[in-house]
Amino acid sequence: MKKLIVASIVLLGIAGFVFANGSQEGAAGKGSPLTLMQNKPEIGAALTAYGQEWSKTSGIPITIKSIGGTSNGLGQQLKADYAAGDMPDIFVIQGPQDYKQWESVLQDMSNQKWVAETSVPFKENGKVYGFPVSIEGWGLAYNADLLAKAGVDPKTLDNYAAYKAAFEKINSMKAQLGINAVVSMAASSQMSWVVTDHDMNALLSNGLPYDDLSVVKALLAGKVDASRMQQYANWVELMFKYANQTILTTGDYNAQVNAFATQKTVFLHQGNWVDPNMKQAGVTFKMAFAPYGSLNATTDGIFVSAPSWYVVNKDSKNVAGAEKFLNDMVFTKAGQDFIVKKADMIPAFKNIDLQPSGQLSQSVQAWMKAGKIYAWNQYQFTLNFRQQILGPIYNQFATGQINEAKFIQLMTSAFENQKS
């Protein structure tokens, strides 16, 4: 009897083990739901629709959460979710600083099939952790029709002197051209990312080979090249002087983009992600990106990179499902169609042959094909440093609270004392 009881206990134990393991396998298996949190609200609807389609074919439910439009909205939400023990299965990082914050939860994806198809994965210590969401480029988009009327060839705008002369000429023709400012530029507190996440790269990487971090490393060490800073300050002053002042100091994203879409400015300081806005506004004029000639020397290129990367939470109950979702975006027709046609993004994968329809995206691809691109290096610096320290300095310059000399002084001091 005792043996029977023991045997029964052993059998129950084995059954319990099998059941427990069966439950665990089910939780981590094909049908376990996924959550993806991303920071591009402009693709939220398209990504949600793709997620629903993918769920039907894969049998894996996925919820898409789009957090964006405000400063560090995604970062704050991720911190809250982490504290609550409810991290998403897939989320977004924007570079080295984000990696440092979340490295303990990131899945090594070095062995994934998609890695061989891209030149811009996020890597750290020789391992791949990030799947590039897209390729993006930014600079000065121009209205080709208005530039032609003004008699300015955009190809010649490859240094500071050329831009200064062009801006002065266009400004003298505002009534004739029907514009109210030369450039649509924003530097308000809510739009600080335009200067601290984008324009600052003119200081960090313009004119340098793509992998050259010499200026970045010097600045991180508190060493400021006075000549390069002076040239950058000249450039910022030029941009601010010829911008629509209301948009520059108080305008939001829509105000900045709409000024260009309605042909009230000749230039727009933004990236190819505004293509959907142009389409929605019914824009018919020709547009492209001009060289970013912010230095005295010739700089014939624009700034291009992967803006962000999807990463997988290694503690997810369905790591395999999360990895499948990413691979399917690259290797299925539906995934490729989502990236290029539905989300209007430039694919970061060489096996995708589809071409975006937006004029600015096509311009970015042309710059890439020509090999005339400069890096995005803003994410080498912390979000707090960019937005809380540098942002107000740009804003003070834009609103006339400080002059160029003070701008240089404050920027130099900020880099000398920053703690990235």
Distance between the termini: 71 Å
Q: Can you tell me the CATH class of the largest domain? A: Alpha Beta
Q: Total number of helical segments? A: 19
Low-confidence parts: 1-29
Q: What general form does the structure show? A: globular
State which percent range the strand residues make up: 5-15%
What is the name of the CATH architecture of the largest domain? 3-Layer(aba) Sandwich
CATH evolutionary superfamily of the largest domain: Periplasmic binding protein-like II
What is the third-level CATH name, the topology of the largest domain? D-Maltodextrin-Binding Protein, domain 2
Q: If you average the pLDDT, what whole number results?
A: 90
Percent helix, as a range, is 40-55%
Radius of gyration over C-alpha positions, nearest whole angstrom: 25 Å
Our count of domains comes out at: 2
What's the β-strand tally? 12
Judged by helices, strands and strand pairing, the structural class is alpha/beta
- Main β sheet profile: 6 strands, mixed
